[in-house]
Specification:
With about 350 residues, the protein is of the alpha/beta class. The protein folds into two domains: about 1-150 and about 325-355, Medium-chain alcohol dehydrogenases, catalytic domain (Quinone Oxidoreductase, Chain A, domain 1, Alpha-Beta Complex); about 160-305, 3-Layer(aba) Sandwich (Rossmann fold). It has helices at about 40-45, 95, 155-175, 190-200, 215-220, 235-240, 255-265, 290-295, 310-320, 340-345, and strands at about 1-5, 15-20, 30-35, 55, 60-70, 80-85, 115-120, 125, 135-140, 145, 180-185, 205-210, 225-230, 245-250, 265-275, 300, 330-335, 350-355. Strands 3, 5, 6, 9, 10, 17 and 18 form a seven-stranded mixed sheet that branches. A six-stranded parallel sheet has the order 13-12-11-14-15-16, sandwiched between helices. Helix 7 (about 255-265) links the parallel strand 14 and strand 15 (about 265-275). It is globular. The two termini are about 20 Å apart.
């Protein structure tokens, strides 16, 4: 039995309960989780914005050490340090063969099947296929990416989602170039990662946008040259900082209609707008036919930073080694499994809360 933060009903609180995992089956890996980041997607699963079978162990941004492997697994071995990959690609579907593994049609399959049981025998599902808010988890072999032992677990964890998603949006989806202007709306862990990536490629100016002036210093630490408080005048303020045109690239890291419209209006004519935040299906964004034509902007959706973790994680670690990304700065709070609910309440304050699970 292992301790885990379990969601027993959507809209309810996570409870620390005992779950039974068993041994890894063929093609599976058991991981002792050391650290997990608290992501807004976990909250969306908990509150019902995103669908989730229950009971479920949430948490998808995790890092730990392999403790056992099932038959046929040779890519990792017990003792290896790994990052959990919540979107393991099959490498065989149409999207994977096209070179777009982040759109794999089978990436969510593992999340739909129970992987553990409560002490009364009730099947338990792994949130986003990983179940990282637990002392241990079992995932498919493709659900882990090996990292050097020298990478601190808390830093490895944020690579699993926040950094791949935010930096990937800048590096892969929008392909920001040196000297281009960037506006990032929403400065949580993903937005701060986007700021860092924009700085890493030499973009400028880099404008952080968030609801409170208290985020200004945090934005500056992560690469913003300017800060704008979001609201009705935010897009106009961004245009003023970019020669009256608007940003070459605007990123929405929230996923709400108002923030998407802010990013849209803050971008220049002919600019690029990338929607990184995950909104609900009831959140409707409207554009007039005239503005779509007249402004000539490109609107991108962005799944997992358009990243292939097998390629992206070594690349990002290279940027860390070169001093261009600061993973440690993304952690603004720590807690234990019992503190996940409180961490959900702090999501709007910026950065990442890291759940320290095992030492």
């Amino acid at each position: 039995m292992v301790k885990a933060a379990v969601l027993t009903r959507q809209g309810g609180q996570l409870e620390v309960l005992d779950i039974s995992l068993g041994d890894p089956g063929p093609g599976q890996v058991k991981v002792r989780v050391h650290a997990a980041g608290v992501c807004h997607s976990d909250l969306s699963l908990a509150n019902g914005t995103l669908p989730q079978e229950v009971p479920a162990v949430l948490g998808h941004e995790g890092a730990g050490v392999v403790t056992a492997v099932g038959d046929g697994v040779d890519r990792v071995a017990p003792g290896d340090h790994v990052i959990l990959n919540w979107a393991p690609a099959c490498r065989e579907c149409w999207f994977c063969l096209r070179g777009e593994p982040w759109l794999c049609v089978h990436a969510e399959d593992v999340a739909r099947a129970p992987y553990a049981r409560l002490d009364d025998g009730t099947p338990v599902y792994p949130g986003l296929g990983t179940g990282a808010f637990a002392e241990e988890t079992i995932v498919p072999a493709a659900g882990v990416v090996r990292v050097p032992d020298s990478v601190p677990m808390a830093q490895a964890a944020v690579l699993g989602c926040a950094v791949q998603t935010g930096a990937g949006a800048v590096l892969n989806t929008a392909r920001v170039r040196p000297g281009e202007s960037v506006a990032v709306v929403g400065l949580g862990g993903v937005g701060l990662s986007a700021l860092q990536a924009a700085r890493a490629v030499g973009a400028g100016p880099i404008i952080g946008v968030d609801v409170t002036e208290a985020k200004a210093e945090l934005a500056s630490q992560h690469g913003a040259t300017d800060f704008v408080v979001s609201g009705d005048g935010a897009a106009k303020a961004v245009r003023k900082l970019t020669g009256g045109r608007g940003a070459d690239h605007a990123f929405d890291c929230v996923g709400l209609p108002a923030t998407i419209r802010t990013a849209w209006s803050a971008s220049r004519r002919g600019g690029s707008v990338t929607v990184v935040g995950v909104g609900g299906k009831a959140n409707i964004v409207e554009f007039s036919a005239l503005e779509l034509y007249w402004f000539g902007r490109t609107l991108h959706g962005c799944v997992f930073g358009s990243s292939d973790p097998e390629v992206e994680i070594p690349r990002l670690l290279g940027l860390v080694e070169d001093g261009k990304l600061d993973l440690a700065a993304l952690t603004t709070a720590t807690t234990d499994l019992a503190g996940v609910n409180d961490a959900f309440d702090r999501l709007g304050t910026g950065g990442r809360t890291i759940v320290t699970i095992t030492s």
